[in-house]
Design brief:
The complex is a heterodimer of chains A (260) and B (399). Chain A is of the alpha/beta class and 260 residues long. Chain A is built from seven helices and 15 strands. Chain A has one domain: HUPs (Rossmann fold, 3-Layer(aba) Sandwich), CATH 3.40.50.620. In chain A, helix 2 runs antiparallel to helix 5 and helix 3 crosses helix 4. The longest helix of chain A is centred in the first third of the chain and has 17 residues. In chain A, 54% of the residues are buried. With 399 residues, chain B is an alpha/beta fold. Chain B folds into three domains: 53 residues, 2-Layer Sandwich (Alpha-Beta Plaits), CATH 3.30.70.20; 181 residues, HUPs (Rossmann fold, 3-Layer(aba) Sandwich), CATH 3.40.50.620; 118 residues, 3-Layer(aba) Sandwich (Rossmann fold). Chain B has eight helices and 22 strands. In chain B, strand 18, helix 5 and strand 19 form a beta-alpha-beta unit. The chains are: A alpha/beta (260), B alpha/beta (399). At the A-B interface, strand 4, helix 3, helix 4, strand 9 and strand 10 of A face helix 3, helix 4, strand 11, strand 13 and strand 14 of B. Strand 15 of chain A pairs parallel with strand 22 of chain B. The structure holds flavin-adenine dinucleotide and adenosine monophosphate. The site of adenosine monophosphate has 25 residues of chain A, from helix 1, strand 6, helix 3, strand 8 and helix 4. Flavin-adenine dinucleotide (FAD) sits at the interface of chains B and A.
Chain lengths: 260, 399
């Protein structure tokens, strides 16, 4: 079983602050982490390998320093790691990112591709399904449980609004995963040693036989026009007094806003 | 890098430094350079007094599609249905779609898959000029392969300039496939849509970086311009019982699919988890203390007629299933009223609920950050306040 896990290195958004004067992101000192959803994707990949054999390859597209995230994934138990890094990839939107990842995945070969549900910097949740389309394989989003995997089929639970679907697919397939799927493991001592020594496969524009017009800024249909700070909520009103008084006053307010 | 600084022109004045939303400009040896955080937004270009910042390959964007753009005219919305019932977000899309199509002086089209004429007629009363109806029984249940194939087919045939879908589990799952097929841009989870007065392009506004910033996205060189729209943000249009419109039956060749839905399982907890469509959400965090606390919360929600949400801390404790989680790694909700009980208000929670119309916070710590986004704040012990509140609401409603 060839398993590929797409991971993204992202700034820890919990640590991001906005410069109130310039309305810009202050990245300085903000640690980079593996996108939290992708940790669950790595865990899922490793578990399937433990059950059926094969190998898990982690793949990321990003600047050279994204290598640290790949090494962290190897420490968790991934077998191989590939870094897609090239000046030509800079400025990619989700379309171009997905196209590029798909070209690399075609080279690497895969039975199951895992992605996180979404990346916490862009929050688009588009790269998974778009990559599947470029690979011309089916995908299942929001996977919260893997019920059964065989050499050519998979059955999973897909989270929906008021419950879940049980979905079956043929392989190859791409799955995007939610947090409920599993508890990602911590790196083992052996894993950490492996991570230090691991050879990172570097892939650039010539290695993936990509169409230049589909890459990076040039290949991206969308453009960011403007960035601005979100509006701050209106005045708040504190409701004080004894619990009894607080409740009575809140009920008045609820009536006012026709919630009651 | 798509943007570079010409070192011979740069005077090191640092004027550009604060213009970058991504902190991608750095100074080394008195000269600016662009680092890998550059998102190519081009904000810094006009800021430089020396014109030293340039696009590396100006004008080399793909322009061959330019002339075809004129062929794309209408506004098309994907009308989502589940179990034959049109989802509420579809009517909201008709509301914003009407506004956009009026501004562009074009038609508003709805694509409805897996439902029948009565539902199509409803869409017309809510503002659609034309409904493309595909009643194939293979489309009654949502399916990524089949849905993306059919939608791409009708878009190719009817050539809308704008395509909108709900940012629901269904929309966010299959619409990216459609955009990939059509080789066009897609903007996720928009909270506001406008037409640029000059270019007539669609301005797609959405939160990013966990809600810390807002971004305006455009798709100038490709059509259609596609966006998913966050439920409950757009207002429904006007309902007109007498509105007339056209229903076109769309034929598809056997929608094929490589995935198969075997069964839909409703989540067992008795309370509704359809947080996306709830008017009132009562949410509990670590302060709720345990499953018992949730029982209390459920009763409160029931009295108010609302759904129950949760913070990640409460989900991690195992008090309530993940499907109730609100926030960055859970659901994004926009109810009329959001009542946060025993939730501190971590930024990852706030991004999932801060666009609610009215936020009520109950917390014993007056310094809790949740009060910064609250419309009404109650400092106190929720174990005292909530049972009392539930009792009085029941009385008020005569329950
Ligand atoms: C990558 C990432 C993603 C995350 N995604 C999410 C997400 O999607 N959603 C989310 O919610 N969190 C998310 N978190 C976690 C988030 O950072 C917080 O840890 C979490 O929201 C805290 O939950 P809480 O407010 O319930 O708990 P706490 O922070 O522990 O707050 C409990 C509150 O209850 C109050 N309280 C206690 N007892 C009482 C009482 N008797 N009466 C009244 N008040 C009382 C306390 O004063 C306190 O303010 C994420 C974190 C990371 C790193
Ligand atoms: N640059 C990238 N490299 C590798 N995987 C990515 C990249 N961007 C996105 N992904 C994958 O796609 C998922 C969804 O990302 P997004 O569509 O950006 O929200 C992530 O959880 C990753 O699994």
């Amino acid at each position: 079983m060839n398993i590929i896990v797409c991971i993204k290195q992202v700034p820890d958004t919990a640590e991001i602050r906005i410069n109130p004067e310039t309305n810009t992101l202050m990245r300085e000192g903000v640690p980079s982490i593996i996108n939290p959803f992708d940790l669950h994707a790595i865990e899922a990949g490793i578990r399937i390998r433990e059950q059926l054999g094969g190998k898990v390859t982690v793949l990321t597209m990003g600047p050279p320093q994204a290598e640290t995230s790949l090494r962290e994934a190897v420490a968790m138990g991934a077998d191989e790691a590939a870094l897609l890094s090239d000046k030509a990839f800079a400025g990619s939107d989700t379309w171009a990112t997905s196209y590029t990842l798909a070209q690399a995945i075609k080279k690497l070969g895969s039975d199951i591709v895992f992605c996180g549900k979404q990346a916490i910097d862009g929050d688009t949740a588009q790269v998974g399904p778009e990559t599947a389309e470029f690979l011309d394989i089916p995908h299942i989003s929001y996977v919260k449980k893997i019920e059964e995997v065989t050499d050519n089929t998979i059955r999973v639970q897909r989270l929906m609004d008021e419950g879940y679907d049980i979905v079956e697919s043929s392989l190859p397939v791409l799955l995007t995963v939610v947090r409920e799927l599993n508890q990602p493991r911590m790196p083992s001592l052996k894993g950490k040693m492996a991570a230090k020594k691991a050879e990172i496969k570097k892939m650039g524009i010539t290695d993936i036989e990509a169409d230049e017009n589909s890459l990076g800024l040039k290949g991206s249909p969308t453009q960011v026009r403007k960035i601005f700070a979100p509006e701050i909520k209106a005045e708040r009103k504190m409701i004080e007094g004894t619990p009894e008084e607080q409740v009575d006053n809140l009920i008045k307010e609820l009536r006012e806003i026709k919630c009651l | 890098m798509p943007v570079i600084v010409k070192p011979d022109k740069c005077t090191g004045c640092e004027t550009c430094l604060d213009s970058c939303p991504f902190d991608a400009i750095e100074f080394k040896d008195g000269k600016a350079y662009i680092n890998e955080y550059c998102n190519a937004c081009m904000t810094c270009l006009p800021v430089c007094p020396e014109g030293a910042i340039i696009e590396t390959e100006p004008g080399t964007r793909n322009m061959e599609h330019r002339q075809e753009i004129a062929d794309y005219k209408d506004v098309l919305i994907f009308a989502e249905q589940r179990e034959g019932k049109v989802a509420s977000v579809s009517y909201e899309l008709l509301g914003i779609g009407k506004k956009l199509s009026n501004e562009l002086d074009t038609q508003l089209i709805a694509a409805l898959l897996g439902a029948g004429e009565p539902e199509a007629r409803e869409l017309i009363k809510w503002g659609a000029d034309k409904v493309l109806l595909c009643s194939d029984s293979g489309l009654e249940r949502f399916n990524d392969d089949a849905y993306s194939g059919v939608l791409a087919q009708v878009i190719n045939e009817y050539k809308p300039s704008i395509v909108l879908a709900g940012a629901t589990p269904i929309g966010r799952s299959f619409i990216p496939r459609v955009a990939a097929k059509l080789r066009t841009g897609l903007t996720a989870d928009c909270t506001s849509l406008e037409i640029d007065k000059e270019t007539k392009n669609l301005l797609q506004i959405r939160p990013a970086f966990g809600g810390n910033i807002m971004a305006t996205i455009v798709c100038p060189d490709y059509r259609p311009q596609m966006a998913t729209v966050r439920p409950r943000v757009m207002k429904r249009g006007e309902y007109d019982e007498n509105r007339r419109g056209e229903i076109v039956h769309v034929k598809v060749e056997n929608p094929v699919s490589r995935t198969k839905v075997l069964e839909f399982v409703k989540e067992v907890s008795g309370i509704s988890v359809n947080l996306h469509e709830a008017d009132i959400i009562v949410a509990g965090g670590r302060g709720i203390g345990g499953e018992k606390g949730y029982k209390m919360l459920e009763e409160f929600a029931e009295a108010l007629g609302g759904s129950v949400g949760a913070s990640r801390a409460a989900v991690d404790e195992g008090w309530i299933p993940y499907s109730h989680q609100v926030g960055q790694t859970g659901k994004t909700v926009n109810p009329k009223v959001y009542i946060a009980c025993g939730i501190s208000g971590a930024v990852q929670h706030l991004v999932g609920m801060q666009s609610s119309d009215i936020i009520i916070a109950i917390n014993k710590n007056p310094e809790a950050p949740i009060f910064n986004v609250a419309t009404f704040g109650l400092v106190g012990d929720l174990f005292e306040i909530i049972p009392l509140l539930t009792k009085k609401i029941r009385e008020a409603k005569g329950l």
